[in-house]
Amino acid sequence: MEQRLAEMERDLREKARAARETARVARERAQRAARRATTSDKRASDEELGYVKTDDSFGKILADGLDEFADWIERRGQK
What we know:
The protein has one domain (about 1-79). It has three helices and no strands. Helix content is about 80%, strand content about 0%. It has helices at about 1-40, 45-50, 60-79. The protein is an all-alpha fold. The radius of gyration is 23 Å and the shape is flat. The N and C termini lie far apart (about 45 Å).
């Protein structure tokens, strides 16, 4: 039991360290974007602010998933 608790504590510490590192990187990125925005009239780009763009809409992702599910059902019915 103590070994399992120690393992859980190590896991939590590692996750906390990773979260702090992610926050630090995001903070630095935001500070750089803010400095660029104040030194120029141009607004920081979405990429500089850390936004991710995708061509897939929620509806397209859902439709693709339903198509795959229908194909899977069809394959199971043929066996």
